[in-house]
Amino acid sequence: MESIIQARNINRFFKSGSERIHALKNVHVNIKAGTLTILKGRSGSGKTTLMNLLGALDRPDQGEIFFQNQDITKFAESKRDDLRRRQMGFVFQSVALIPLMSAYENVEFGLRVAGYEPQKRRARAEECLAFVGLQKRMGHRTHEMSGGEQQRVAIARAIAHRPEVIFADEPTAQLDTLMGLQVMKVFRDLVEKERLTIVMTSHDPNIIELADTIYELQDGQIMNESESGIYGG
Ligand SMILES: Nc1ncnc2c1ncn2[C@@H]1O[C@H](COP(=O)(O)OP(=O)(O)OP(=O)(O)O)[C@@H](O)[C@H]1O
Ligand SMILES: [Mg+2]
Hints:
With 233 residues, the protein is of the alpha/beta class.
């Protein structure tokens, strides 16, 4: 399968007081287009750091990251902003919906921020909310929805501008098992029906088995790469 993101020999250091933390050590990753990849590993192993690099939210100290064969570590900040805005979507652990807006308004607002054509916003927002199974909740505000419903609104918002890759950092961590699996069902549908590429992090074995590819991080290093679970081959 064609690769969409490649990270080569990545090193990332952080300074914390007088301490120097080697958060990623010679990391190589190959993300295939139209698949779901999960980064797993203990707290502090480097999952978020790696995802932020792949999603052009951060730059490595050493190494290269290719997105569709272009080295994005060499892009100027404005070009990286553009890349994120147009081709990537983000879902974070603690849902960042705007509280006073309805589900519909949150998704529509996201489209506005992404510069999506005004006359197509309504239909696209409704389509995405329907995709995540929330056609009956479009008018609900954040506090009128369950955690899983809110997370699905966040997914609708992340996919609405038709990105090629979704990055999701622990998207199911705050959800119970059933709601977590509902969110994963949406992710699997996006991969299978829309050919989206998804990169996410998780600790949960029930969630991890739904990946096509699993990278296991330990103390900043990739310890294991497996094609596994139900879908991997
Ligand atoms: N901005 C930062 N400044 C200093 N140290 C950092 C920074 N970000 C991350 N680190 C350190 O880098 C290491 C990796 O952190 P990271 O957030 O990637 O872990 P993680 O695998 O996502 O953990 P968790 O499962 O708890 O989210 C940790 O030791 C962390 O303390
Ligand atoms: Mg993390």
